[in-house]
């Protein structure tokens, strides 16, 4: 497929690009700074732009078949939600339907999967702005007319891709390790391009 990756130089996006190319997709990496792309591949196109600039987002989205979004801003807010709103608008304008968007476990009803530390210390205090940004990001996706899947991973690790993790569990599920490798997140996101099981759903990911 022709796929566009937002957040392509981020910790998850890098894996999405590399794994997408390995699967034979034609990948366009949307980046602010092309020097952050350290992959050379005949199937890779680098598009320089700003996700907060709706015009550049629309130019990148046009003629794609699917969009994968893993934009981030550390502990800061705004970029995830505002960038995602631009992506949704561009997709609706250009007729691109399939969106796979990475947010976080704990958003929405999945708050029930978290332990005390993640509920009250991390998302309640230290990452409050980032968490609120993810929540608003999900609103824009869920209110869209797109064929979307919101992927909610637990805390990232630098482990290898295992393909062995829990996903799509109910919000009442306890005992999760609340960790998942970035490589496994990327693999699951790419799986959604050919698997409609989680269409318009919000599967969580965790070991």
Summarize the structure.
The protein has helices at 13-22, 54-61, 79-94, 116-126, 128-142, 182-191, and strands at residues 2-6, 26-31, 44-48, 66-69, 98-102, 147-153, 155-157, 166-167, 179-181, 204-206. By secondary structure, the chain is of the alpha/beta class.
Model description:
It is a single chain. With 207 residues, this protein is of the alpha/beta class. It has a single domain (2-206), classed as Rossmann fold (3-Layer(aba) Sandwich), CATH 3.40.50.720. It contains six helices and ten strands; from the N terminus they run βαββαβαβααββββαβ. The strands form two sheets. The chain has an eight-stranded mixed beta sheet with strand order 3-2-1-4-5-6-10-8, with helices on both faces. β1, α1 and β2 form a beta-alpha-beta unit. It is globular, with a radius of gyration of 16 Å. The protein starts with a strand and ends with a strand. The model has no long low-confidence stretch (mean pLDDT 97).
What are the SSEs and their pairings?
Elements: E1 2-6, H1 13-22, E2 26-31, E3 44-48, H2 54-61, E4 66-69, H3 79-94, E5 98-102, H4 116-126, H5 128-142, E6 147-153, E7 155-157, E8 166-167, E9 179-181, H6 182-191, E10 204-206
Parallel strand pairs: 1-2, 1-4, 2-3, 4-5, 5-6, 6-10, 7-9
Antiparallel strand pairs: 8-10
Helix pairs in contact: 1-6, 2-3, 3-5, 4-5
User: Which descriptor suits the 3D outline?
Assistant: globular
Main structural class: alpha/beta
Mean pLDDT: 97
CA-to-CA gap between the ends?
A: 29 Å
**Beta content:** 15-25%
**Tally of separate domains:** 1
């Amino acid at each position: 497929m022709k796929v566009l990756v937002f957040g392509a130089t981020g910790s998850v996006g890098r894996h999405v690009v590399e794994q997408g190319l390995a699967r034979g997709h034609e990948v366009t990496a949307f980046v602010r700074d092309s020097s952050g792309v350290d992959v050379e591949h005949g199937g890779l196109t680098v598009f320089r732009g700003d996700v907060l600039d709706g015009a550049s987002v629309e130019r990148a989205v046009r003629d794609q078949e699917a969009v994968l979004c893993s934009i981030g801003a550390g502990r800061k807010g705004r970029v995830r939600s505002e960038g995602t709103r631009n992506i949704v608008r561009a997709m609706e304008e250009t007729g691109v339907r399939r969106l796979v968007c990475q947010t976080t476990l704990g958003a929405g009803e999945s708050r029930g999967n978290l332990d005390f530390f993640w509920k009250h210390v991390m998302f309640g205090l230290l990452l409050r702005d980032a968490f609120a940004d993810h929540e608003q990001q999900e609103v824009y996706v869920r209110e869209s007319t797109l064929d979307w899947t919101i992927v909610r991973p637990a805390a990232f690790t630098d482990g290898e891709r295992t393909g062995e993790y829990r996903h799509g569990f109910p919000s009442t599920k306890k005992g999760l390790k609340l960790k998942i490798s970035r490589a496994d997140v990327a693999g699951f996101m790419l799986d959604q391009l050919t698997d409609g099981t989680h269409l318009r759903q919000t599967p969580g990911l965790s070991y």
